[in-house]
């Protein structure tokens, strides 16, 4: 096996390359010492790049924290000038849609959820993705159920790691943008995300937990994908995330459902690592997450009467943890 073949097989993933390096060192199956040297050099370079990205993320986090404190100080000064009585406000929740979504589509997809929240005077704000959706499969699947609603958006182009789990090449840039949006929309108490939106909600929760992002009182993750995105963001997931979390998933969900890219996975094995559902991997990132399981598949609301129970638990969860 030459280095170019190895590099293509490992998808430039430092964790996978490190694993292969350890495996080959243990078994002594090196076929070419040049491969070993080049692999180690490549791995070292990638680790250095990741360290630099982590350091840059910390600088940006400190800048955001300073802006947040300055804003809070100004608001406190204004409040004091008005007698120091803080007006009550509604709970505010940021909603993140799935691949091919938009504000218009979310209003249709999540109608029952939005109605249940509105009855409890919980305000929902939808953040649209900033990229056009390139997956024709995702668009076609959505149009079957919801008609031709434009635009078709996403937060980032999805890719697959060596396990065929979802990851994103530009997740750092997307998280920077989302943090700016959270700051501009403040106050935001928590986030509800569906599919791709759930993936990024998990990342935002990780940022909040380590003080790198806007503070969140809770996150609700509906049908998250297998978390390949966690490996390049180890700083967010190396410790249990303490942000209160609720995970909603269906017993009929599979590892490729909802990706809108199953044609790319046709015939390719997806590693399950001993777990039946993607959500089983995601819940391990969080400290004591609340999990709601329904009998359906990939959807925002459970089927039939189960939806009433799901929405009731979600409302209770939000009202318990929000701090308006």
Describe this protein with a few key phrases.
single chain; 324 residues; alpha/beta; Rossmann fold; 2 domains; six-stranded parallel β-sheet; two-stranded antiparallel ribbon; 11 helices; 13% strand; disordered N terminus
Kindly describe this structure.
- This protein has 324 residues and is an alpha/beta fold.
- The protein folds into two domains: 3-65; 90-321, Alpha/Beta hydrolase fold, catalytic domain (Rossmann fold).
- It is built from eleven helices and ten strands.
- It has helices spanning 3-10, 14-27, 33-81, 103-109, 111-119, 136-146, 171-185, 196-209, 234-237, 278-282, 306-321; strands spanning 91-96, 122-127, 131-132, 153-154, 158-160, 166-168, 190-194, 218-222, 245-250, 290-294.
- The strands form three sheets. It has a six-stranded parallel β-sheet with strand order 2-1-7-8-9-10.
- Helix 9 (234-237) links the parallel strand 8 (218-222) and strand 9 (245-250).
- Helix 2 packs antiparallel against helix 3.
- The longest helix is centred in the first third of the chain and has 49 residues, at 33-81.
């Amino acid at each position: 096996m030459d280095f170019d073949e190895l590099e293509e097989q490992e998808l430039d993933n430092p964790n996978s390359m490190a694993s292969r390096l350890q495996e080959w060192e243990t078994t002594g199956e090196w076929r070419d010492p040049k491969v070993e040297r080049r692999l180690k050099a490549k791995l070292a370079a990638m680790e250095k790049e990741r360290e630099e990205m982590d350091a840059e993320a910390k600088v940006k986090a400190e800048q955001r924290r300073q802006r947040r404190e300055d804003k809070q100080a100004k608001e406190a000064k204004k409040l004091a000038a008005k007698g120091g009585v803080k007006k009550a406000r509604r709970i505010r929740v940021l909603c993140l849609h799935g691949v091919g979504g938009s504000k218009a589509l979310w209003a249709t997809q999540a109608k029952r959820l939005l109605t249940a929240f509105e009855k409890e005077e919980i305000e929902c704000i939808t953040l649209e993705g900033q990229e056009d959706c390139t997956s024709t499969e995702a668009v076609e699947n959505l149009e079957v159920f919801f008609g031709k609603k434009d635009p078709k958006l996403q937060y980032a182009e999805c890719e697959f790691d060596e396990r065929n789990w979802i990851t994103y090449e530009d997740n750092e840039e997307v998280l920077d943008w989302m943090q700016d949006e959270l700051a501009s929309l403040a106050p935001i108490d928590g986030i509800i995300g569906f599919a791709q939106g759930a993936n990024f909600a998990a990342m935002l929760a990780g940022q909040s937990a380590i003080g790198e992002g806007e503070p969140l009182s809770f996150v609700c993750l509906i049908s998250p994908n297998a978390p390949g995105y966690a490996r390049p963001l180890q700083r967010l997931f190396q410790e249990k995330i303490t942000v209160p979390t609720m995970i909603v998933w269906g017993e009929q969900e599979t590892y490729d459902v909802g990706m809108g890219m199953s044609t790319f996975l046709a015939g390719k094995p997806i590693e399950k690592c001993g777990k039946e559902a993607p959500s089983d991997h995601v819940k391990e990132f969080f400290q004591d997450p609340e999990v709601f399981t329904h009998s359906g598949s990939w959807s925002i609301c459970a089927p039939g009467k189960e939806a009433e129970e799901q929405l009731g638990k979600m409302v209770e969860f939000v009202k318990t943890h929000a701090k308006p």
